[in-house]
Each structure stands twice: as structure tokens, then as C-alpha cells.
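Thread: "does anyone have the structure for this chain?"

Original post by V.I.:
We have the sequence but no experimental structure in hand. Need at least a predicted one for the grant figures.
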Amino acid sequence: MKTINWGFIGCGEVTERKSGPAFNQVEGSQIVAVMSRSAEKASSYAQRHNIPKWYTDAQSLINDPDVNAIYIATPPSSHATYAIMSMKAGKPVYVEKPLAASYIDCQRVMRISNETKIPCFVAYYRRKLPYFNKVKELLDENIIGKIINVQIRFSVPPRDLDYNKTNLPWRVQRDIAGGGYFYDLAPHQIDLLQELFGPIVYASGYKANRGGLYQTEDSVSAAFSFHNGLPGSGSWCFVGHESARTDQIELIGEKGRICFSVFTYSPIILQTSQGHQEIPISNPKYVQLPLISEVVSHLQGKGTCTSDCVSATTVNWVMDKILGKI
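Reply from O.Q.:
Generated one for you, C-alpha cells below.
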């Protein structure tokens, strides 16, 4: 492919703030069509972003001869269906995370990608951001020595929408999201850690609903280990008090520690016998731009993108093991 002509299935908030504009900023990439089940939403999005075509039916967009790649930005429950439809039509896909609402559905996507030889990429864009590249650089420099333990700690208060019993956010509806906020946010943390340390081969956990605001889990504790025996643990709370607000991954080494956030991008903390250092790192305005650029390069035959359905399926395996889904 010389020019990647994208068709968007879904045009929600994530495409406005994180991804959408980036597709037109990459050389050899452009958005030519968008789809939403709401005609008003699809037409409005197309008009605001100067996209020539809009649809209310996913199959019609996939069949459009001017579209040669598909971006899927719908809730997770439909990811597998749309990805499989696209690949069977011979069109590569870039799917929002998580790849699907379950490990089983991820396996279906991976099988079709393998059978059709059509690539399926997943939007684990944090692994390509300068902030996390700096963390990898510090590890590669062996500044804190051998890593002994990995700890995830995350806590936030409930969101205002969580109190709306009649119209709960889709992210806390299991049949749409695959779980609660854990299923929405933890994938980024797990993917990053596997990018840094290799595959997680053991995971277990305990889930609970302590706030009673919705039916899905709002508190999760987990233990896991990587292929090289490195142990890790995680604690997530989505109904915590403001005083407990935390977004941190701590890497404990034999010569020091590295602490970094995943969502707030607060300065990276490096602590060794040489002292305490805080390292601020900025990211691009559209945070998916580096990964989208790599995807386009892959489709043009100029490079390789490894943020694909294979690595993404392992993320869902870890989450489903922690939640006891498998």
C-alpha cells in the first residue's frame, strides 16, 4: 500500500482527543470514511474533520473500495466482530484496546488474522510514547540493577457518572466492556510491563464490589509472574477516597527503584544510592501518533509494528486470569 485510506468504525471521544487527527498527520495516511450507527453523529464528525464519506452500517464502510484499512473505535464487545469482518474482506485493522471483551474472543481474532494473513494491530500506544521510552532507557542502562519486584498501585474516586443508576457508563457494563474500569485501564499497565519484561505466564487475583455503585468489580488485587521468574503484584480501586488517589508502577531493583505513572505522566522518579531524581518527560499532543505512524510504516512495507493481536491477546489472558474468567 502506498497511501493508507482509513475507514473509522466508531467516532467517540477517543477519536476526538487521542487518535483521530493523528491519522491525517502521518505521511501516506488519510481518513476517507467514518461510521456510526447514529447518522447525526457520523455526518457531524465527517463534516467537522473534513472526511468525504460517512456511513451508519459497518459492512458498507468495510466494503467501500476507497477504504483499504479499518480503525475500530467502538466498545470492546464489538471489537472481535468488526475486526473479523474487516480481515475477511482483506483489510488490515487497528483496534482500540483491549482487543476484545474476553480472552476467548481475542483468540478468534488472532486465528482469523493468521488464516487470512491480514494484520491486526491494537492501540497500546503508550509503549511508543517518549515518557515510557525513557523508563525503558533507564532499565537498559542498568541504573537500578537487576529488577527484583514489580508493583502496580492504582486508586481513584468514583466518577460522577458512576452514581447514575439509570444510565451507567458502558465501561462498567460487563456485557459491553468485558468487566469494570479494571478491564478498561489495566490493559495499558499490563501491556507496558510485558513490553518491558516479557510475557506474564502466571496470574491470579481477587475481585470485589465494595462501593455498590454498579454490578462489576470496583476493587481488584492480583499477583503475577513473568517468564523469567520476576514476581509482581497489583492493586486497583475505583471507589477510593480522594486522599488515596494513586497512579504508580514501582520497579524495585537491587541498586534502586524507578517509579512512574501510566495515566498522569507525572515525573519519573529514579532513586539510587546517588540520590533522588525526578525526570519530567512530555508527550505529543495526539498520544497515538507514534504508534499510528509505526502501523502505517508497517502497512507500507517500510517497518514492523509488534503491537498486534498476538501481544494483545496475552494482555486479555492476564486480565481474565486475574478476574477468574478463565
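V.I.: this helps a lot. The chain is about 35% helix and 25% strand.
O.Q.: and The chain has two domains: 4-125+287-305, 130-282.
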